[in-house]
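TASK: fixed-backbone design
INPUT:
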């Protein structure tokens, strides 16, 4: 028996299933969570979520949010999240190009530079996750 994991956004349930191991992008680096983990609540940063179940591994891109861990259940409330199979690669590549252009043509507008860096980071995470092989549909 593994640990149940639900990944939700304000709009939808992105992933739901059982896992033997879940790796999440914590604010201080990657956090590995096994079944029966102590309860905790923390923030996550934009990055990759890896879910291991038996011999299979699934990948998702998340754009930051909250993580709640209980011994038998993990919940991630993400600002945005996509499973590897639903990432639109052309869209992420376009977002990456736009962000790079904004960064190279950066003038006095530092605020715009910061948001371009964040957009570039999201695009790079999506492209990396989309390249991972295993995919999985939601099981509700
Ligand atoms: P874009 O500039 O392409 O909109 P973004 O990083 O600004 O990218 P977000 O604000 O993080 O996009 O997300 C907005 C919504 O679009 C979310 O629901 C997110 O899941 C979805 N989304 C963003 N990029 C992609 C993508 N490449 N493939 C699939 N869904 C995406």
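OUTPUT:
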């Amino acid at each position: 028996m593994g640990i149940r994991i639900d990944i939700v956004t304000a709009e939808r349930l992105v992933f739901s299933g059982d896992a033997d191991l879940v790796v999440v992008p914590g604010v201080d680096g990657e956090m590995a969570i096994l079944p029966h983990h102590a309860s905790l609540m923390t923030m996550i940063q934009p990055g990759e979520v890896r879910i291991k179940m038996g011999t299979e591994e699934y990948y998702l891109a998340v754009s930051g949010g909250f993580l709640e861990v209980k011994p038998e259940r993990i919940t991630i409330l993400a600002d945005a999240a996509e499973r590897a199979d639903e990432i639109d690669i052309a869209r992420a590549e376009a977002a990456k190009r736009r962000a790079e252009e904004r960064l190279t043509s950066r003038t006095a507008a530092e605020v715009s530079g910061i948001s371009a860096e964040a957009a570039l980071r999201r695009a790079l995470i999506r492209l990396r996750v989309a390249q991972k092989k295993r995919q999985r549909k939601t099981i509700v």
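COMMENT: The chain has a mean pLDDT of 91.
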